[in-house]
Specification:
Length: 387
């Protein structure tokens, strides 16, 4: 067998004092590169590795990032092997950022949130889950002496935290967010939803989906702003996207997946891509990921031994578009239906004469372990005050 026959991927588990020399030599022999399909390849000379060299796996050179991640054999930050991935920018954003978003359906702003803002949002997450800021439908009873960390571990996600938290409300219009959404959507932008993902170790991910399936804008302007409150990696359940999958403008309808790795949300079907086209979006805490409402994306479970993968996810759209989403009376024609529980974050509201309604309330999103619940927590009573 020749040296070239040993073109396989080796992922090392750890280096110890005893075998440190082996690891150093092995790393010199391995020259990793990433091809256009995110395939990892290791070049030659692996036959020189001593027998018994510790490793997690020996896999074919055609193994994709996704295949390795699903096998739980992809180390954190592998997507950064060749430096900062494409589509990652610093704020203020350069002119080419909007063009990348239009082409690929996503972009990342690395310094979107300051360290002080990040710390405050992390602390606010615990306050919300402990019920200290207002009513959150679906919160579990807890001992008075339970630590904030233990309380957080109970939950996958809280919907509409901005309805009870002034800090989360303020985060809807972070300067970096306003800069990006006005660049990719237009000058007049409104927000209709926030979601606080806690995702502690062991919690499931969400299967392939498009956000426009859930929030139907009339002009395809829906854009997510995903604020990372912790480092998000392939180990703890970062986002995965299929670049350019938004360009067709087709909604891929969902069916139940029956996969325990994912939460109660169903999975998009019959799209012309496979998991091998997926790209992990690994980001540092304080980064903001923006993605188009038609972009296919998912996340795998948090496989880390401990900790959280918290993220505050807000959804935006053009203020010019009506939003036939939820909460309107059956006799209202869909053509004129317009969800008005919104927050303007830039420009002017051409439908301001309609006023602002109080439709949504903070509630726990079922994660699947105890059942999938229903949509009953999405809406509050009409008589509830708007705070």
């Amino acid at each position: 067998m020749t040296k070239s026959d040993y073109r396989s991927l080796i992922v090392f588990e750890r280096s110890t004092e005893r075998d440190g020399k082996i690891f150093a030599d092995a790393k010199q022999l391995m020259q990793m590169s990433i091809d256009g399909n995110q395939n990892l390849r290791v070049c030659n000379r692996l036959d020189f590795l001593p027998v018994g060299t510790p490793m997690i796996s020996l896999m074919p050179s055609t193994a994709t990032f996704n295949e390795l991640a699903e096998a739980r054999k992809l180390p954190a930050w592998t997507s950064w092997q060749n430096g900062r991935p494409a589509g990652y920018y610093s704020w203020p954003i350069p002119p080419e950022a909007a063009a990348f978003f239009a082409e690929n359906g996503f972009l990342v702003i690395e310094n979107g949130v300051t360290a002080e803002e990040l710390k405050a949002l992390q602390e606010e997450s615990a306050n919300i889950c402990r019920g200290e800021l207002g009513v959150v439908n679906g919160l579990q009873e807890r001992p008075d002496d339970e630590s904030p960390e233990d309380t957080l571990r109970r939950y996958l996600c809280i919907h509409f935290p901005h309805k009870i938290s002034k800090l989360m409300l303020s985060a809807l219009s972070q300067p970096a967010i306003v800069d990006v959404v006005t660049s990719v959507i237009g000058p007049n932008v409104k927000c209709m939803q926030s979601m606080l993902f806690i995702k502690p170790a062991g919690k499931p991910g969400q299967a392939w989906h498009q956000d426009e399936i859930y929030i139907p804008t009339r002009d395809r302007s829906l854009t997510g702003g995903w604020i990372a409150l912790d480092d998000a990696t392939v180990e703890n359940g970062c986002l995965w996207v299929i670049p350019k999958s938004q360009r067709e403008g087709i909604l891929y309808f969902q069916e139940w997946h029956g996969d325990s790795r994912f939460d109660c949300a169903s999975e998009a079907q019959r799209f012309p891509w496979s998991n091998k086209n997926a790209v992990p979006v690994e980001v540092k805490a304080g980064s903001i990921v923006f993605f188009n409402g038609y972009l296919l994306h998912r996340s795998l479970p948090n496989y880390a031994n401990r900790g959280f993968r918290r993220a505050l996810v807000n959804h935006y759209m053009s203020a010019e578009s009506l939003l036939p989403w939820t909460g309107f009376q059956p006799e209202v024609p869909v053509a004129s239906a317009d969800y008005r529980d919104i927050v303007m974050i830039a420009g002017t509201d051409p439908y301001a004469f309609k006023g602002i309604e109080n439709k949504a309330g903070a509630h726990v999103r079922p994660s699947g372990e105890g059942g999938c619940g229903s949509n009953k927590y999405n809406l509050v009573k009409e008589s509830d005050p708007l705070e």
